[in-house]
Amino acid sequence: MQKLIGKICLVTGAARGIGEAIARAFHREGGHLIITDIDESAGQELAEELGGQFFRLDVSEEADWDDLARNVPQLDILVNNAGITGFEHGPAAHDPEHATLESWRRVHAVNSDGTFLGCRYAIRAMRARGAGSIINISSRSGMVGIPGAAAYAASKAAVRNHSKTVALYCAQQGLAIRCNSIHPAAILTAMWEPMLGDEPGRQARMDALVADTPLRRFGTPQEVAALAVLLASDEASYMTGAELTLDGGILAGSAAAPGS
Ligand SMILES: NC(=O)c1ccc[n+]([C@@H]2O[C@H](COP(=O)([O-])OP(=O)(O)OC[C@H]3O[C@@H](n4cnc5c(N)ncnc54)[C@H](O)[C@@H]3O)[C@@H](O)[C@H]2O)c1
């Protein structure tokens, strides 16, 4: 039986990667999809394929969220998925000694501010029905220090913590609006491309990246989507404020040591 029949589901950063996989999985479960992204052509194409709607939404822009709220005033499920590492335009210094304030702020604007704005919109849009599910895509990097990606790690830690605040706030308000965070690691998407590069050396870099992963492989966007379906569905009705790792076992043991 489909798990999301009749639910209005909004996914940010849904034009590709994990967001796209989540949108496709929600569609298979009977949800009505609102696809959002800054990539208008890919987002529009996916929305047409899934019979949903597309809205251009830069998650770091409050005005974009205000426009969205006017167009989509009611919602059942929100996935705050859009995120950036800071490496989108190639190698750059993101360690605590050399990172620029500008790059730190940009990563936080998308990952942290974007999640705050998304949660605020969702609470308001779910309040009328008094129920809903907010799923925030954090990262294993939000649970450990990452020397080479300081802003990314700090912003994802903010996502993790804010998810718990939202969960408690909604419970205090007597609302059945649940909020949980997913913490993936090493999911093979285009996000990795700037770090993997081309051959020669690409395969060696891929092997090195998963050498410390107990399952010794990258995860797939579909594996993240399966967990998002569970959290979105009524089967997870007693889950709120939870953090769920999806990392091939990395955080289960010593591979989470500093330096990784
Ligand atoms: N891939 C991984 O290994 C991994 C691991 C942990 C966490 N995550 C998180 O999962 C989420 C999705 O990652 P992915 O691997 O699919 O990335 P991706 O780069 O493949 O896709 C990200 C999508 O977000 C969109 N986007 C970027 N900036 C945006 C903005 N300001 N507003 C709206 N949309 C924007 C992009 O256009 C793109 O469609 C991110 O939050 C990421 O941090 C990914």
How would you describe what is shown here?
The chain has 260 residues and is α/β, with parallel strands linked by helices. The protein is 42% helix and 15% strand. The chain is built from 8 helices and 7 strands. It has one domain (8-247): NAD(P)-binding Rossmann-like Domain (Rossmann fold), CATH 3.40.50.720. The longest helix has 27 residues, at 101-127. The model has no long low-confidence stretch (mean pLDDT 96). Strands 3-2-1-4-5-6-7 form a 7-stranded parallel β-sheet, sandwiched between helices. The structure holds nicotinamide-adenine-dinucleotide. The site of nicotinamide-adenine-dinucleotide (NAD) has 28 residues, from helix 1.
Summarize this entry quickly:
With 260 residues, the protein is an alpha/beta fold. It is built from 8 helices and 7 strands. The protein has one domain: NAD(P)-binding Rossmann-like Domain (Rossmann fold), CATH 3.40.50.
CATH fold assignment? Rossmann fold
Number of strands: 7
Largest sheet: 7 strands, parallel
The CATH class is Alpha Beta
Helical content (DSSP H or I, runs of 4+): 40-55%
Q: Which CATH architecture is right?
A: 3-Layer(aba) Sandwich
Side by side, the strands of the main sheet go 3-2-1-4-5-6-7
Low-confidence stretches: none
Radius of gyration: 18 Å
* Number of discrete domains: 1
Question: How much of the polypeptide forms β-strand, as a percent range?
Answer: 5-15%
3D shape = globular
Number of helices: 8
Intertermini distance? 41 Å
The H-level CATH homologous superfamily, spelled out, is: NAD(P)-binding Rossmann-like Domain
Bound molecules: nicotinamide-adenine-dinucleotide
